[in-house]
Amino acid sequence: MGVTGTLAFAAPALAQQDTEAMQRQLDALRAQVERMEQQLNAQQSTATADSDQASSQTRDLAKENRSLIESIQDSQFSGTLQLKGVYNDWDQVDKDTAGDMNFGKFTLGVNGQHDDFLYAFEYRFYDGYQFLKKGWMGYQASENDTVKVGLVQTPFGNMDYGYLGWYGNLPYIAGFNDNQNAGIKWDHTQGAWDTSLAFFKSDQLGDGHEHYGANAIGGSAQGNTEENQLAGRVAYTFGEGTDYTTEINFSAKGGQLYNKQTNESGSNWQAAVGLNGSYGNWYTLLQATAYEYDAENPAESESGISDNVLQIGAFNYTYLIPAKGQTYSASVAYSMDVNWGDIDNLYFYNDFSYISPNGDYSPTEGGFGANVDDPMLNDLGMKVTAGPYYAWFSVISGKNALNYFGPVDGDWHTSLQTNFGLNF
Fold first, then answer.
1. What's the burial of 171, exposed, middle or buried (CB within 10 Å: 0-12/13-18/19+)?
2. Highest mean pLDDT: which range of 42-51, 56-65, 159-168
3. Beta strand ranges found along 316-370 (DSSP E)
4. What is the mean pLDDT of the chain?
5. Which of 74, 92, 113 marks a domain boundary?
6. Of 20, 110, 217, 349, which cross-links 165 as Cys (Cβ 3.0–4.6 Å)?
7. Is 210:308 a contact under the CB 8 Å cutoff?
């Protein structure tokens, strides 16, 4: 066979070999592509799972942060800065200088809710002392039921203050109204009914007199402290849901009166009936309270304090109240909205109260001083409000007013007080 024939025979063979080689290469390439597609699909599946997991984690984190942000947004922060002007008719310096201007108070507070959990806190600063006014954690068990634990307000008498003005009244000064104690309280509302029950492990957080509500002072010479107290209050409101309502309330409180000097326990009890009226722009409060402190005091010669009185204290001051007696108070107020430039409200009020001791009572010389007539106190005044700014103007008059207000000499004495500041 010639060269030409040989090439003619070899060409198809070479073409077939090349075709087979190319086919093998194509098959290998196709297999490699399939493997790559499988790897890509696996990577995409993994990425999708990771992405879903990451998205889920992101959603959970966002939900948690949103809940936290909403909780913070539900918190209401507040504060007060107040200055005080005083003129006392029994003070010679005030007579010579036409009164004095002092720092009043600075307060910081927060109230809030997170889901069904509630909380409130208020801390106060005064000239030379400071204290926690309230501080509690709560749970909204149902639409009508709330439980609070901490330093909470005692359910007793007319709430929240028991008076309508600025200075207060004798039931408040004696420690019955607007008092805070350390324990647990349950509040229940059902239509026109309001019911509260509480157990207080101790009267205050400490044995001193640097606190808001008046209580027996364990660190005093007499040495009594209110422990393991039960309190209850029930109220019914006539005209509930209208602008003209009358609430009638009954309350009682009592328990252990422990003496840190004798290490013995006495007892105490208080009971009150009150009326809280709201009639359009008019407001009124009436309350009668009976009470008794049966203390296991040290000998009078040791303490220097009579058994006819009880040492109590508040606002960095210790004073004496009758160990047994009754208190009576009456208040009236009128609120008037105005449009006088920045002034938007005028509020007028009068609070009157007195104490009727059982037996002899003296608030001086450790209770051994001369017997005095029934202590009386009256606060007449007005409040002017302009947005966040306010000013109280009070004419406060007292006679034998527990030695907490003015001299105890059987005469009436008067204090002119102005308190102005801002809420934020």
1. buried
2. 159-168
3. 317-322, 324-340, 343-357
4. 88
5. 74
6. 349
7. no
Between CA 104 and CA 393 the distance in angstroms is: 14
Tell me the average pLDDT across 129-157. Answer: 96
Is the per-residue pLDDT at 54 higher than 80? no
Alpha helices in 75-198 (DSSP H): 92-97, 170-173
Same domain, 258 and 333: yes
Whole-number Å distance between alpha carbons of 126 and 316: 10
Residue 139 has pLDDT above 50, yes or no: yes
Residues belonging to the chain: 424
Question: Domain check: are 326 and 407 in the same one?
Answer: yes
Its domain, for residue 107, covers 79-423
Q: What is the mean pLDDT of residues 309-326?
A: 95
How many whole angstroms separate alpha carbon 329 and alpha carbon 308? 23
Least confident segment among 66-75, 81-90, 269-278: 66-75
Examine the domain organization and report whether 115 and 4 are in the same domain: no
Q: Which helix (H) or strand (E) holds 424?
A: none
